[in-house]
Amino acid sequence: MKTRNMLLAHAKTISAASVIALCMGAGTLAAPLVTQAQSFESTQRQPIDSIVAVVNDGVIMRSELNDRVAQIEQQAQAQGGTLPPGSALQAQVLERMILDEIQLQLANRSNLSIDDTELNRQLRTIAESNNMTLDQFANAVEADGMTLAEVREDIRREMLMRQVQQRQVGQRVSVSDRDVQRVLDQQGNQNSDQAFVEEIRARHVLVDPIADLPLLITTGEPAGIGPELVLMLAAQGHLPAQAVAIGDVDMLRKRAAALGLDVALLETSPGQVVAACAGQLPVWPVALSEPATPGVLNPANAGYVLATLELAVAACQAGQAAAIVTAPLHKGVIIEGGYSGFTGHTEWLRDACGVDEVVMMLATDAALHANAPDWQGSGDLRVALVTTHLPLRQVADAITVARVTRISRLLADDLVRQFGIASPRIAVCGLNPHAGEDGHLGHEELETIIPALESLRAQGLDIQGPLPADTLFTPRHLAGVDAVLAMYHDQGLAVLKYAGFGQAANITLGLPLVRTSVDHGTALDLAGKGVADPGSLRVALSLARRLAEQRAQTARQA
């Protein structure tokens, strides 16, 4: 029962008003589901088990109701709370179970699902909130007479119901426990019933200011796989609530038809709120210069790609969007299109936002430093870069004390601001083999990297290194590390992409807005064939929303 209490304590309060609409299919927004929930009270002798409620095509059994009531009673007893009398409590619990069943049915009809990446991350959060490692949490589950599979299924159900709320409720609540506690502290001493009421009220009045803002997806190179990845997620119902694509509507429509994807495109514009259902894709239109053919680059459309980015940045700067997620572009064709100074998304966004320095970081939860070898996703692997898109011949000259110091500081600051890590721990790679071998294999460590790190440590930053890159990415060195700082592109990203290619995302740190992207390129050889994997885009979308929410929460707590 301790495990049940941990899960119940961690779960967010769900309002009965959350279920307001049902998306029945592509292009259709239906009225609220009419629920025929009938309670059965038998005057006859109760059988071993019986049906207490019918919810559409599902049922709630007497044994399920009894189990849920027993869980709540034990939790209340452990916390010193009071509950209504037996019959009233059963009626309230049954009503909640009916609402839960409705939401799960809505999730099924809307093709919503929870992937293992999100589920594992939630398990880690629950374990950490109870000051446990994942191994300790698994042992506690077994000691409580449950299986890990049962706990995972409980959490999956809660997350599915939360997805339904996020897709259907106009204003969603994203409130930290600290936010709630601030409100409760202002209420003074109260009895347990009043405190419970005030906590629910606090969670519903502290509304995340970015909750209604769209999550913008720039569709990238029109000849690449970016447009179809967005269309695939829309057709599958895997786009997050209020996601909006930016691109050429006619191109997207033709690409969907060619791939046999049943997607209704909804033309909209900045400032309009559109909550799409499975099979729908809101689009902010930007016109191509010339028609696009999958797999065939056309420099004439270079300006189109940059125009989608310009619109996205302008919307974020005007407070009309929560974050930007970028599908891949092709650097070469943009340069050929007349933009000779273009070096990539990261540098373009730096200049567009008017900041001096940004950091490129990729993240995946397919970590190399898992607490348990057979537990996938038990820790995030985050790799940031001191240099990005530079020829290898130029890397050593670009690594200076000032640059290492600036990048390290930006990385630490955004681990706090966007990831909510209070005291980030960073491990730094050396540039040369064996981190220079005390100067025998290069002097960059002695002359540049070590002085920079010593200065940062003197300022209170928890930063290790420089460490040999060939051994840093091993469980012993990664244990307890929040991010790795690599000196150049392939030094860090080869390892990360091996660990989680297709399930990783690119994040630009140091911007005044949230930007994530996929971990792959335009894949021209796959474009138009419908075989590309949208997994990385899905990760990037989920991460962008979480980073935007964490960023807003950090700002509130400052």
Automatic annotation (TrEMBL):
<feature type="signal peptide">
    <location>
        <begin position="1"/>
        <end position="30"/>
    </location>
</feature>
<keyword id="KW-0862">Zinc</keyword>
<keyword id="KW-0732">Signal</keyword>
<dbReference type="InterPro" id="IPR027304">
    <property type="entry name" value="Trigger_fact/SurA_dom_sf"/>
</dbReference>
<keyword id="KW-0479">Metal-binding</keyword>
<keyword id="KW-0963">Cytoplasm</keyword>
<keyword id="KW-0520">NAD</keyword>
<feature type="binding site">
    <location>
        <position position="434"/>
    </location>
    <ligand>
        <name>a divalent metal cation</name>
    </ligand>
</feature>
<comment type="subunit">
    <text>Homodimer.</text>
</comment>
<dbReference type="GO" id="GO:0050570">
    <property type="term" value="F:4-hydroxythreonine-4-phosphate dehydrogenase activity"/>
</dbReference>
<keyword id="KW-0460">Magnesium</keyword>
<dbReference type="InterPro" id="IPR005255">
    <property type="entry name" value="PdxA_fam"/>
</dbReference>
<feature type="binding site">
    <location>
        <position position="389"/>
    </location>
    <ligand>
        <name>a divalent metal cation</name>
    </ligand>
</feature>
<keyword id="KW-0664">Pyridoxine biosynthesis</keyword>
<dbReference type="InterPro" id="IPR015391">
    <property type="entry name" value="SurA_N"/>
</dbReference>
<feature type="binding site">
    <location>
        <position position="489"/>
    </location>
    <ligand>
        <name>a divalent metal cation</name>
    </ligand>
</feature>
<comment type="function">
    <text>Catalyzes the NAD(P)-dependent oxidation of 4-(phosphooxy)-L-threonine (HTP) into 2-amino-3-oxo-4-(phosphooxy)butyric acid which spontaneously decarboxylates to form 3-amino-2-oxopropyl phosphate (AHAP).</text>
</comment>
<dbReference type="InterPro" id="IPR037510">
    <property type="entry name" value="PdxA"/>
</dbReference>
<feature type="domain" description="SurA N-terminal">
    <location>
        <begin position="48"/>
        <end position="165"/>
    </location>
</feature>
<keyword id="KW-0560">Oxidoreductase</keyword>
<keyword id="KW-0170">Cobalt</keyword>
<feature type="binding site">
    <location>
        <position position="345"/>
    </location>
    <ligand>
        <name>substrate</name>
    </ligand>
</feature>
<dbReference type="Pfam" id="PF09312">
    <property type="entry name" value="SurA_N"/>
</dbReference>
<feature type="binding site">
    <location>
        <position position="346"/>
    </location>
    <ligand>
        <name>substrate</name>
    </ligand>
</feature>
<feature type="binding site">
    <location>
        <position position="515"/>
    </location>
    <ligand>
        <name>substrate</name>
    </ligand>
</feature>
<feature type="binding site">
    <location>
        <position position="506"/>
    </location>
    <ligand>
        <name>substrate</name>
    </ligand>
</feature>
<dbReference type="Pfam" id="PF04166">
    <property type="entry name" value="PdxA"/>
</dbReference>
<comment type="similarity">
    <text>Belongs to the PdxA family.</text>
</comment>
<keyword id="KW-0521">NADP</keyword>
<comment type="pathway">
    <text>Cofactor biosynthesis; pyridoxine 5'-phosphate biosynthesis; pyridoxine 5'-phosphate from D-erythrose 4-phosphate: step 4/5.</text>
</comment>
<protein>
    <recommendedName>
        <fullName>4-hydroxythreonine-4-phosphate dehydrogenase</fullName>
        <ecNumber>1.1.1.262</ecNumber>
    </recommendedName>
</protein>
<feature type="binding site">
    <location>
        <position position="497"/>
    </location>
    <ligand>
        <name>substrate</name>
    </ligand>
</feature>
